[in-house]
Specification:
The complex is a heterodimer of chains A (501) and B (443). Chain A is mainly α. Helix content of chain A is 47%, strand content 4%. Among the domains of chain A are: 138-283 and 287-332, no CATH class; 435-500, no CATH class. Chain A is built from 23 helices and ten strands. Chain A starts with a helix and ends with a strand. Chain B has helices spanning 3-9, 15-29, 60-67, 99-103, 122-126, 138-147, 157-165, 211-225, 231-254, 259-264, 271-284, 286-289, 309-333, 407-418, 425-428, and strands at 36-43, 53-55, 78-80, 89-91, 107-114, 177-180, 193-196, 293-300, 340-346, 366-371, 379-382, 405-406. The longest helix of chain B has 25 residues, at 309-333. Chain B is α/β, with parallel strands linked by helices and 443 residues long. The radius of gyration of chain B is 22 Å and the shape is globular. Chain B has one domain. Classes of the chains: A mainly alpha (501), B alpha/beta (443). Chains A and B meet through α9, α10, β5, β7 and α18 of A and α6, β7, α8 and α9 of B.
């Protein structure tokens, strides 16, 4: 049995969760190239891709090493829940390598999400807002107040996406996540274009924090750690009306931002909005309204009067009957996203990886880590499947091409010796899954039932179980290794495994 | 010159009878190949149409004043003289590759179209009357442009018209609706939609004739047929099975190297060019696939230019122009230009007014390109807005133009050309009834 599973079973789920909350982060380390753009000694040489200069460029000015560490941590970190939660948050508060190619900037951002994973949502909102990488990505950085002489206006990008994607969404929600409707049965909008323009004015006057020894000015030189700094002379100080709240004139950029974040944080949509996304990340794509309401209620109040307590929210998600129950509902479950599909497969069977192979495979499956196509992530939480009645976010990147990439991955791991160590990566181990001791691991030749237990929680249907044993029947009864490979392959490529139920 | 123009030009037919006679001529010319394809190129992020099509007449000064630092110099624009000899507009220079299609009369521009419930005034917009779904939001506007129906509609409008004509593809080895390199709502169809890679085929390793390989394949087939009662499992199985079943047919087409297609795309390396090259191969191989109607979708991202717009849009339009030109040239070389229509869609246009970092924000009505031998090109359709910030055509104060042509009208015009019967248009596009013109006339 995989070690982590043994731990859950010996501690019990309640104590396991509390234990996970205390585990320090396995973070992103070793990025010391603070410069925004690659210096001359750190350039990709097309003719010499493994020279120190090229590797410096690869490891610091592309996300190669960040992605590798992501998978290495996901495979090996003891802070499994923190990794999962930070990954879930990174798919809500999206920044992308389409623009943020600087590994140091991405590392400080992702480390921040790891640090905040079990904190309070209000802190996540503020930390994300003031992180320079987010500032670059959604243009809050150097967002100047309107200039009538030049005919320019504040940049609306961060204001809009902060409300639409990070906190409250476009439709007014009931506590259970269902939309509030107008007299014609149409969803009520959460905010107007005027609200977006007002919040864009709130978010004016921020630039990089100043480097030691320099004087802060509009605008400061790039600095990819710490928080953005306010320059009040470039902040719009007129009064602002926003989401029904009134922000007085003459306030500093800091005061305006704090008030605006409080207005958004206390908006009734945040609980059901975030509850739905986290449930979809961890448990099921189509939670019942009652499940959403139970989690949203805990978001609104953790029982001690605190709003936004993410540990309490995670407890509510995992201990809920809908996560723990019989799961007999035919619509239950979620398609595993590529990163979880691959790491889950390897961890269940005792595989190892340094992350090099997995980062490339994940991209081929439509999930280029930290590099979503846009701030809308790899997939939409409302992406619909079949006749449109069910949601299946991850299905948005599951298609005729990527389904074959998943099959190819399993083939390469099971029959293709995985991937060898990469000489250009320090301490590289490659990616492998050994079946050499299959005869010991799968004692008494119970290959099918052992793999059912490891990969399907012992819940494989009778018909599917027979499909596996039929495939094994083509192999000699004493060829335990061959049978273990065949069973791992058939289960790994199956929809029954790739959909978590 | 297409067949219709030819017949008119010869004086054989009046314009009024041309259409009915045409089908007879078509049938006689090639009864086996009544083929048509629609190719949607979606410009993700919201292409700034205000800098794609620019007035070069007396309105240019208003344009330049509103755009400020983003104004394109009038002498850098590709001039677009229309069929009447008037030159009212110019095109972004990065699209200069499309000048040939324009001169051939095979490129048309649709002005200021966008999501509308019905024709609407500024006063109504400000009073929140007849407001379309989720204006100014990427996801909401992408959905409206691609689905053109209520939020409960699962199919995209590309998928719906694919379903309408699907009976013409009886026995085909691929679905009518095909998307390249990723699924979008536009393509979703009851008759199925297939996603194909940017280039190359649907490849799979470990499939040989060995006993072990065959046993694995058989087990996979069995696994694909069990546990159908679990809806997400069943949905995933459908995707996998669909891909496995179509591999052979698709690979036979896309892995062949036709000189016609290859030479049209020579020297192009952008992703969108590779994707349109794949589409060109499928168009060329349509008889082998057994299809007479195809609806393609391809996307080009990066148009959400909140900063540094001038250089980003220049790069992206260069990729778009190169790819669409090559694709058009390929269809001309195949002798199929009049059977294939390529058109652009995008989230929205962008504000006329810029911000301090050379970017723009989400707007509404936008200009679009329609390319193909069947297009009545060298012409502009729709109405260009009055360039007054806060004026009668502005939804706010920054130049968010209120559309004067709806997405539904645009889509229905394409659908009608594709062969969808007029009486089906309102069923397909529920808001059509609110607009006078059912056909914008660009065919």
């Amino acid at each position: 049995m995989p070690a982590e599973l043994s731990k859950v079973m010996s501690l019990g789920i309640v104590d396991y969760l509390e234990d996970q909350f205390t585990k320090p982060k396995t973070g992103y380390t070793g990025f010391r190239r603070y410069q925004n753009l690659a210096p001359d000694d750190c350039r990709t040489l097309v003719n010499d891709p493994t020279s120190p200069s090229s590797l410096c460029a690869r490891d610091n000015y592309t996300l190669f090493e960040m992605q590798r560490q992501f998978f290495a941590n996901a495979m090996n970190g003891e802070d499994q829940l923190r990794q999962r939660m930070a990954f879930a948050l990174s798919q809500i508060f999206v920044i992308s390598g389409t623009e943020i190619k600087n590994a140091y900037a991405m590392s400080t951002y992702q480390n921040m999400l790891l640090d905040d994973a079990f904190g309070n949502f209000r802190d996540v909102m503020e930390h994300v807002t003031l992180h320079p990488a987010m500032g670059i990505y959604l243009d809050m950085l150097n967002n100047d107040k309107a200039n009538p002489l030049k005919g320019t206006k504040p940049n609306e990008n961060y204001a809009r996406e902060f409300m639409q994607l990070f906190t409250i969404g476009t439709e007014q929600l009931n506590l259970d996540g269902t939309p509030r409707l107008d007299a014609d049965g149409e969803p009520l909008a959460t905010y107007t274009q005027q609200d977006v323009e007002a919040l864009a004015r709130v978010f004016t006057g921020w630039t990089y924090s100043v480097w030691p020894g320099q004087t802060s000015k509009w605008t400061n030189a790039p600095k990819l750690h710490g928080q953005l700094a306010a320059v009040d002379s470039h902040h719009d100080t007129d009064p602002k009306l926003f989401l029904g709240a009134s922000l007085p004139g003459g306030q500093t950029a800091v005061a305006d931002m704090n008030l605006a974040l409080d207005v958004i944080f206390t908006h009734p949509n945040v609980g059901p909005f975030i509850a739905t996304r986290l449930i979809q990340s961890f448990v099921t794509s189509n939670p019942s309204p009652a499940y959403v309401a139970r989690v949203a209620r805990v978001f609104n109040n953790n029982g001690m009067g605190v709003r936004g307590d993410l540990q309490a929210v995670l407890r509510a998600i995992f201990f809920d009957a809908e996560a723990r129950g019989q799961k007999s509902d035919s619509a239950y479950g979620k398609l595993k996203e590529p990163a979880l599909f691959m790491t889950g497969f390897l961890r269940a069977l005792g595989g190892t990886s340094d992350g090099v192979f997995l980062r490339a495979q994940s991209a081929a499956m439509g999930q280029d880590i930290f590099t979503a196509p846009s701030v809308f992530n790899y997939y939409s939480p409302t992406h619909r499947i079949g006749d449109g009645t069910l949601k299946g976010p991850e299905f948005q990147i599951f298609n005729g091409v990527t389904t074959l990439a998943r099959i190819d991955f399993v083939y390469q791991i099971v029959y293709g010796d995985g991937a060898a160590a990469d000489k250009t990566v320090v301490n590289s181990t490659g990616t492998s899954l050994s079946f050499a001791d299959a005869a010991t691991v799968y004692a008494n030749a119970q290959v099918a039932s052992e793999l059912d237990a490891r990969m399907m929680y012992g819940k494989l249907s009778d018909a599917s179980y027979k499909s596996v044993t039929d495939a094994l029947a083509a192999l000699a009864p004493d060829d335990i290794e061959g049978r273990a490979r065949a069973a791992a392959y058939v289960l790994g490529v199956s929809a029954q495994y790739q959909v978590q139920r | 010159m297409d067949r219709r123009q030819f017949l008119r030009g010869m004086g054989f037919l009046s314009a009024a009878t041309a259409l009915s006679q045409l089908s007879i001529v078509n049938a006689q010319a090639d009864a086996s190949d009544d083929y048509k394809a629609l190719v949607c190129v979606f410009l993700f992020g919201g292409n700034d149409g205000n800098n794609m099509i620019v007035p070069v007449d007396a309105r240019y000064d208003s344009y330049a004043a509103l755009r400020g630092s983003l104004a394109l110099a009038s002498d850098k624009l590709v001039q677009l003289p229309d069929v009447n000899g008037a030159t009212e507009y110019g095109m972004h220079s990065a699209l200069s590759g499309l000048k040939g299609a324009w001169n051939n009369g095979h490129l048309a521009v649709l002005l200021n179209s966008g999501p509308l419930v019905r024709p609407i005034t500024r006063a109504e917009v400000l009073a929140n009357i007849a407001r379309p779904f989720e204006l100014f939001s990427h996801s909401g506007q992408q959905r409206t442009w691609q689905v053109a129906a209520k939020t409960s509609e699962a199919r995209g409008w590309g998928g719906r018209i694919a379903d309408e004509v699907n009976s013409m593809n009886a026995g085909a080895t691929t679905p009518t609706s095909i998307a390249i390199a990723g699924a979008s709502a536009f393509s979703v169809a009851n008759s199925g939609a297939l996603v194909l890679p940017t280039s190359g085929g649907l490849n799979l390793r470990g499939t040989d004739s060995s006993a072990a390989s065959r046993a694995r394949a058989a087990a996979l087939d069995q696994m694909l047929a069990t546990d159908k009662n679990f809806e997400l499992v069943s949905a995933a199985q459908e995707v996998t099975a669909g891909s496995l079943q179509r591999r052979a047919a698709v690979n036979g087409i896309v892995n062949t190297t036709s000189t016609t297609v290859k030479s049209a795309f020579a020297g192009l390396s952008s992703t969108v060019a590779k994707q349109m090259q794949t589409i060109a191969k499928l168009v060329e191989g349509h008889q082998e696939l057994g299809v007479r109607r195809q609806v393609f979708f391809v996307g080009l991202g990066g148009f959400d230019t909140h900063s540094g717009q001038l250089s980003t849009q220049n790069t992206l339009l260069g990729q778009l122009g190169g790819a669409v030109k090559a694709f058009y040239d390929a269809t001309v070389a195949m002798g199929m230009a009049d059977k294939v229509t390529t058109f652009t869609l995008s989230d929205f246009a962008r504000t006329m007014r810029a911000n301090s970092v050379g970017g723009t924000d989400h707007a509404w009505g936008n200009h679009h390109l329609i390319v193909g031998g069947a297009v009545r090109g060298k012409a502009f359709y729709g109405e260009y807005p009055q360039l007054i910030a806060g004026g009668p055509d502005d939804a706010g104060s920054d130049g968010r133009w209120i559309p004067t042509t709806s997405v539904d009208q645009y889509a229905a015009t394409l659908a009608r050309w594709f062969g969808v019967a007029d009486e089906r248009l309102e069923a397909l596009f529920p808001l059509m009834k609110n607009f006078a013109a059912r056909d914008l006339g660009f065919f």
